[in-house]
Specification:
The protein is of the alpha/beta class. It has a 7-stranded parallel sheet with strand order 3-2-1-4-5-8-9, with helices on both faces. A 5-stranded parallel sheet has the order 11-10-12-13-14, with helices on both faces. A two-stranded antiparallel ribbon has the order 6-7. The longest helix has 15 residues.
């Protein structure tokens, strides 16, 4: 098949493309590299700035690129906002893709109308990026998300694409749940892809015993623009408390806004990753760390394992969205160092079983070729 993947979040499309190519398919990834993370792509759709002259050049660049985005068997969009334009200006580009390609699919992989709506209703999730129980998290960003997605042109675009496309892929339990009520008939949950074979294992991975006198190295990555949104501020406070309580047992590896390749190398110096306080599930950042043998402290709710059909692995140290819960989980690790090698191996097995990029690519092919989402006949699959 000839496949076009447009847009990028946290290496999802670049990794999926690798799996599809290994299965013999022709794939083009067109994206902005997800900003400063600078993920691999075949066609660069990066927008340098929003200044008027630069914006005009960017628009002309898009027109030139889109002339080549024709004749694909499958086009998948990372998000309704799959290029760096306002919602109303993206709609004509979507219609062009729809008109000149066989099938178009929407990714439910991040911020969009349905995710914002589900989080703000305070009933869909026990907690999320937007709510804690029946209360909305009071954050300045909420006004931006509401204006953009619930009341603005991005939301209108999201409705258009969700209604018109051939199918919707959700990469996490949360996104699947957000779309399920309205779009279950054209929705499929497929786990995020990870290239485990390419992941460099942490140096101590093969050791069966954690040296009792060695410090546990805790890794925390800070994204300045999303610090409170993802709960990194609270997790860092808990980690600093831990360091104060156990100064001879704890070491902190703290990084801020580094490119993906450098980030992977920095992970190798650590044992434990703290990631996404308000999540039910591990996303790409945590999954990459687990592929390298790190233990994740973050989202590992029962719903995550249920949607995967996993009954025997529990590698993630699940925490509730408060500092005390994080501190207790971290303290437990310090006091139970002997469990670290086993949890490390479970993390790797979890990735190989559910997130292997070849297995995930096959799930995408099965979904894309299903005749239940379009009047088109099934696509011919290449072996």
């Amino acid at each position: 098949m000839k496949i076009l993947l447009i847009g990028e979040y946290s290496n999802v499309h670049a990794t999926l493309a690798k799996g599809l190519r290994e299965l013999g398919h022709e794939v083009v990834v067109a994206s902005d590299g997800d900003g400063w993370k600078n993920y691999d792509r075949d066609v660069d759709l990066r927008r340098a700035s929003t200044r008027r002259g630069v914006s005009l050049c960017y628009f002309l660049h898009l027109l030139r690129c889109f002339r080549h985005f024709r004749g694909f068997d499958v086009v998948q969009l990372i998000n309704p906002v799959f290029i760096s334009l306002k919602g109303e200006r993206i709609a004509p580009f979507y219609r062009y893709l729809r008109r000149h390609n066989r099938r178009v699919f929407l990714g439910a992989f991040g911020m969009d109308y349905y995710w914002v709506k589900a989080g703000l209703d305070c009933t869909t999730f026990r907690y999320s990026d937007f709510n804690i129980g029946i209360k909305v998290r009071e954050r300045e960003d909420n006004r931006i998300w509401i204006a953009d997605w619930l009341k603005g042109s991005k939301g209108t675009l999201n409705h258009l694409i969700a209604r018109d496309c051939d199918g919707i892929v959700a990469g996490l339990y949360e996104y699947y749940t957000a779309y399920k009520k309205e779009w279950e008939h054209k929705l499929r949950f497929i786990p995020f892809p990870i290239d485990a074979d390419a992941a460099t294992l942490i140096p101590d991975f093969e050791k069966k015993v954690f040296a009792p006198n060695r410090k546990i190295r805790f890794f925390i990555g800070i994204q300045r623009a999303r610090n409170s949104y993802k709960g990194t501020d609270i997790m860092l406070r808990a980690l600093l408390r831990l360091k104060e309580q156990y100064p001879d047992a704890v070491e902190i590896v703290q990084v801020e806004n580094v490119p993906f390749e450098q980030y992977k190398q920095l992970l190798l110096s650590s044992d434990v990753l703290l990631d996404q306080l308000y999540a039910y599930t591990p996303a790409m950042n945590a999954l990459q760390a687990m592929a390298q043998g790190l233990i994740v402290v973050g989202g590992g709710e029962p719903e995550n394992y249920e949607i995967l059909g996993c009954s025997d692995l529990r590698p993630i140290l699940n925490v509730q969205p408060n500092e005390e819960s994080v501190y207790e989980a971290l303290s437990w690790l310090v006091e139970h160092k002997s469990e670290i090698p086993n949890l490390s191996h479970e993390s790797r097995i979890y990735i190989e079983r559910y997130h292997d990029h070849i297995k995930v690519a096959r799930q995408y092919l099965d979904f894309w070729q299903s005749s239940s989402f379009s009047s088109c006949p099934p696509l011919n699959q290449r072996s």
